[in-house]
Amino acid sequence: MDAAWQNILLMLLCYAYIVVLILVSDRLPLLEAARRKFLHAMIGNLPFIIPFFTASIYPFLVASPFILVTFFVTPYSPIKGLAERLPGLANITEEGHHMGLVLYAISYSILAYLFGAEPYVIAAGILPMAYGDSLAALVGAKYGRHRYRVFETKSLEGSAAMFVGSLAALGLSLVYFSYLYGFSLGSQLISILAVAAVATVAEAISPKGLDNIAVPLTCALTYVLMGGGT
Fold first, then answer.
1. What's the distance, CA 78 to chain centroid?
2. 209: phi > 0 → left, psi -120 to 50 → alpha, else beta; which?
3. pLDDT tens sequence across 33-44
4. Quick one: pLDDT at residue 164?
5. Inter-axis angle of helices 87-95 and 3-25, nearest 10
6. Buried b / exposed e across 113-150, counting CB within 10 Å, b at 16+?
7. Integer angstrom CA distances of residue 180 from 19, 43, 105, 124, 170
8. What pLDDT is attached to residue 224?
9. Which residues does the chain have with pLDDT short of 70?
10. CA–centroid distance for 37 within its chain
C-alpha cells in the first residue's frame, strides 16, 4: 500500500475509534465518573497505533483537532449550541472538570508533535494518565479512607492505585514497544519506576483538572531523562 494512503487510513481509523468511544461511553450503564474514566483510559490506547504511521507528523494531526472539538463543547465555547449537537462529548466534559478533556488533548498533541517517531515516549506520558489516574479515581472514591490535601483532597489508597496502575500500564506497554523497537525490557525498569513515582506525585499535587496536562508532560520528560527507550 502507498505510504500516503496507509497514513490516511490510519488517521481515519483513529478518528473512528475516538468517535465510537465517545458514543459508547455516554451509553454505558456506569456512574458518571466511571464513564469519563473509561473514555480517558481507552483513548490512552492510541499510542499503540502510532508505530504504523510512516511519518511522525500524522500522530499530531490525529490529536490536535480534538483540542478545538473538546473546547467547543465546554461552557467557554464561542459557538453556542454545539454542545447540544455533540451530547455524548458534552456530557462527559460536564461530568468532569470543564477543561479537563481540552488539557488532555493538548497534552496528547504536544507529545505527538515532539515524539511522533518515538511512540513509547508518548505512551510513557499518556498511559499513567489514562490508566493510573482512572484507577486512582475509582479506588479513591470507593476505598479511600486515609485522606490528605495539597490543592485537592486525595487519599493514600487512590495514590497507591495511581502508582500501581501507572507501573502496570507502562510495563505491559513496553513489552509491545520493545518487540517493535528492539530495546531490552530490563533496561526500562528503573525508567518506568521513576515515571510511575512522578505520575503519583504530579497527580497528588495538581490543582483541579491540571493533572490532565501535568501528569503526561512530567511523565514523558522523566522517561526521556531516565534514558527510557534506549
1. 26
2. left
3. 667 778 778 888
4. 96
5. 60
6. bbbbebbbbbbbbbbbbbbbbbbbbbbbeeebeeeeee
7. 27, 21, 26, 16, 15
8. 95
9. 1, 26, 28-34, 75-98
10. 10
